[in-house]
Amino acid sequence: MRVSDFDYELPEELIAQTPIDKRDESRLLVYHPKSKRIEHRIFRDIIEYIFPGDCLVINDTKVIPARLLGHREDTGGKMEFVLLRREEEDIWRVLVKPGKRAQKGTRFVFGNGLLKAEVLGVTDDGGRTVRFFFDGVFEEVLDKVGLMPLPPYIHHKLKDPGRYQTVYAKYSGSAAAPTAGLHFTPELLKKLEDRGAVIARVTLHVGLGTFRPVKVDNIQDHVMHEEVYAVPQESAEKINAAKRAGKRIIAVGTTSLRTLESVADENGLVRPGKGETDLFIYPGYRFKTVDALITNFHLPKSTLLMLVCALAGREEMLEVYKEAVTKRYRFFSFGDAMFITDK
């Protein structure tokens, strides 16, 4: 399969630049793969499609202010870092721009000297490993000097940084939000639980693996970068109990889905624990645990679009996307949602 097999036409004005006023009032496209039926609803209507005993799996990662704007200590040349993952206490893997200014040994200054960094080396993917220097607690310094790392296709300033966090975000570490979860409110989650749905938490810190573009022609040649995940014992027990009872496992977002499929056995049961995953899901993949998916609309030619095509069919999903464009849905991180259901 070629990357071009996962392309589609998207008018630029459909790329959502800001979140809507109320999280659960975004639009919801419900797709039934078995009948190829499409319904157009509002997100809070999701409650009608989730039944007692179904297990909803959410990713409780928290986005850190991972974007750093600074300059070279010697020349003053401007530099942008995006933190991807912590390697050791003060050592991080980062994206850099422009890369030519970030050679090994180069030092940078951020936040009027509150944070400094030295490049230790170049990574295989063109990023950098850097050591940070600061006084106090790194996370507190980062809160002062860092910015929310919004995707490059969002050009408007985010008035409330909290809108790029899910309401259940807990564990800091992501360079991007698990955006399917942005539509939930505490009230909607409570209604789902009152209805009998089971909510299980997993953590996957979103890094380069999720949003790195596919630069090869043949998608099988693409290599995903590892991202850190954690599946608590309690969550594994909830998921496995639902699976054994014949209930559906519904992933909220592609990050939750990839986490589940990374820790599943051939019977669809998951094991608790921590680890790293580089799982790349594209058409032909056989799903072991996940039955249904709540997700946003993804970029053309992206690994995330390939994932939803694996779940619902490539040609079918491209037709669904065409319908979403025709109906003027809002796309990408602050956009509308889709529910791919098996019912």
Largest sheet: 9 strands, mixed
**Large-scale geometry:** globular
- What string gives the helices and strands in order? EEEEEEEEEEHEHEHEHEHEEHHE
- Indicate the mean pLDDT: 95
Number of strands: 17
Strand-residue fraction? 25-35%
Poorly predicted regions are none
The CATH H-level homologous superfamily of the largest domain: QueA-like
Structure description:
Helices cover 19% and strands 27% of the residues. The protein is an alpha/beta fold. The protein has two domains: 3-63 and 160-340, QueA-like, CATH 3.40.1780; 67-145, Thrombin, subunit H (Beta Barrel). Strand 1 (27-32) and strand 2 (37-42) form a beta hairpin. The longest helix has 13 residues, at 314-326.
Summarize this structure as a short list of keywords or feature phrases:
7 helices, Thrombin, subunit H, 343 residues, globular, alpha/beta, 19% helix, QueA-like, nine-stranded mixed β-sheet, 2 domains, six-stranded antiparallel barrel, 27% strand
Quick gist of this model?
With 343 residues, the protein is α/β, with parallel strands linked by helices. The protein is 19% helix and 27% strand. It has two domains: 242 residues, QueA-like; 79 residues, Beta Barrel (Thrombin, subunit H), CATH 2.40.10.
What are the SSEs and their pairings?
Elements: E1 27-32, E2 37-42, E3 55-59, E4 61-63, E5 67-72, E6 78-86, E7 91-97, E8 107-110, E9 115-122, E10 128-133, H1 138-145, E11 171-174, H2 186-194, E12 198-204, H3 208-211, E13 227-231, H4 233-244, E14 249-252, H5 254-262, E15 273-277, E16 292-296, H6 303-312, H7 314-326, E17 337-340
Parallel strand pairs: 1-17, 3-12, 3-14, 4-11, 14-16
Antiparallel strand pairs: 1-2, 5-6, 5-8, 6-7, 7-10, 8-9, 9-10, 12-13, 13-15, 16-17
